[in-house]
Design goal:
With 182 residues, the protein is of the alpha/beta class. It has one domain: Collagenase (Catalytic Domain). The chain is built from 5 helices and 8 strands, in the order βαβββαββββααα. Strands 2-1-5-8-7 form a 5-stranded mixed beta sheet, with helices on both faces. The longest helix has 19 residues. The N and C termini lie close together (8 Å).
């Protein structure tokens, strides 16, 4: 399998965050990852009544815009995301599909301005790996330390590790092997 994972930004996340995410993605999934622009305008997903962007609509547009060169797509944005049944989401992914995204909008919550860059970066990487995990058919894990654990609060993100538990790692490796045989 020579397919790659695309790490891209939407709106205006600083380009400096893409490289650490790309490296973490490549290491965690054992696949090549690259950065490149893909989707520039997401105003079609903006909902005036909520002052937020509907992430599901953006995921569909990402999937449609990407070429077959990309096995998976991970988009980072700094806009506030929602799905209709929740007030906000840190991110969303197409379960077993190609596209995943995360918003940095709420990941700085509770951090002081000075000296919190590494915590903020860790939150971004953790949520990036979590959302991308869903595209490999990984569901939420009951292990609170696993990267696939569902986080209701930002504190939950801080408490989980930046790795898959043994069980999720096995499922991920099996899915990657299945994709390689296609």
């Amino acid at each position: 399998m020579h397919a790659q994972i695309l790490v891209t930004s939407i709106s205006s996340p600083p380009p400096s965050i893409l490289e650490p995410v790309r490296l973490a993605v490549s290491q965690a999934f054992g696949l090549a990852a690259s950065t490149a622009p893909l989707l520039h305008d997401i105003e079609f997903a903006y909902h005036f009544s909520r002052n937020q962007y509907h992430s599901t609509a953006i995921l569909a547009a990402l999937d449609q815009a990407a070429t077959n060169q990309w096995l998976k797509i991970l988009a980072l944005t700094d806009v506030d995301l929602f799905i209709p049944i929740l007030t906000h989401v840190f991110g969303e992914a197409q379960m077993g599909g190609r596209a995943a995204m995360l918003s940095m909008y709420r990941l700085a919550d509770g951090l002081p301005d000075a000296g919190s860059g590494s915590i903020f970066s860790q939150r971004i990487v953790k949520e990036a790996l979590h959302e991308l995990g869903h595209t490999f058919h990984l569901k939420h894990c009951p292990d609170p330390a696993c990267i696939m654990h569902y986080c209701r609060r930002i504190k939950d993100v801080d408490h989980k590790d930046q790795s898959f538990c043994r069980y999720c790692r096995i499922l991920l490796d099996e899915e990657i092997a299945r994709l390689a045989r296609r």
